[in-house]
Write a structure and sequence with these properties.
- The protein is α+β, with helices and mostly antiparallel strands and about 240 residues long.
- The chain has 7 helices and 10 strands.
- The strands form 2 sheets. A 5-stranded antiparallel sheet has the order 1-10-9-6-7. A 5-stranded antiparallel sheet has the order 2-3-4-5-8, with helices on one face.
- Helix 1 packs antiparallel against helix 2.
- The protein is globular and about 50 Å long.
Length: about 240
């Protein structure tokens, strides 16, 4: 695994946090919600909490992974809300989370918000996770069209810190040799189209260690409006 984060060209501080460990088989990207207080605190709580959960776990069977991820994300969600309630300066803070656990020949993804995980294989790329924002919910018919008039299309419908009860998406995928997973904050995807991301990966496929910084540089080249975080997980 290889990862990097950058403040971008227009933000004063970095509200993204990340953690990855190839030996433990974990990768986490969390993007503090812009426009709210202490986004970097919320994303930090999420990343540290999930890191500690995996460090405290002696073993995981396949059937245990989904409830383990769900419970871990629920726990950090409550921690974020309680921390906000205890400090008025942090009230209302929130964050996305995209957490990958590699167990045996499978990867499990716990997801809330609009940070994404992509699959790249044989020169093609697919988005594995679903954005939890108003724009996509209206497109899918899950929210009425009027929701676009009442809020920003990019506003999150689901994220950590919004409610004591959080509905976590859990994805499960069997892994095959030479696949690559790209987990990133929207600081990359808002700046660089999927087609260009796939092209960059294809051009640098033999040097995965360079990819996070190359993708970050491309996002900054296109304006770098937000913080940018990328983790690349290669299946060998």
């Amino acid at each position: 695994m290889f990862g990097a984060t950058d403040v971008g060209r227009q933000r004063k501080n970095n509200q993204d946090n990340l953690y990855f460990d190839s030996r433990l088989g974990i990768a986490v990207v969390a993007d503090g919600i812009g426009g709210r207080n202490s986004g970097e605190v919320a994303s930090g709580i999420a990343v540290r909490g999930l890191k500690q959960a995996i460090l405290d776990c002696e073993s995981l069977r396949h059937e245990d992974v989904a409830p383990f991820l769900t419970e871990g994300i629920d726990k950090v969600n409550r921690q974020i809300i309680l921390a906000g309630q205890a400090d008025p300066q942090m009230t209302g803070m929130g964050t996305t989370v995209n957490a990958l656990l590699f167990v045996g020949n499978k990867v499990y993804i716990g997801h809330l918000g609009d940070s994404r995980t992509y699959l790249f294989v044989n020169g093609q790329m697919w988005q594995l996770t679903l954005d939890h924002n108003i724009k996509l919910y209206v497109k899918r018919g899950w929210l009425p069209q009027e929701a676009l008039a009442n809020g920003k299309p990019e506003s999150l419908v689901r994220a950590l810190g919004l409610s004591m009860e959080c509905e976590v998406d859990i994805y499960e995928k069997e892994l095959y040799s030479d696949e690559m997973l790209i987990t990133c904050s929207d600081g990359l995807t808002d700046m660089v189209p999927d087609k260009r991301i796939a092209s960059i990966i294809k051009e640098n496929r033999s040097h995965p260690e360079r990819l996070p910084q190359i993708l970050i540089a491309e996002a900054n080249k296109q304006g770098g409006r937000d913080n940018i975080t990328v983790i690349v997980s290669e299946v060998r």
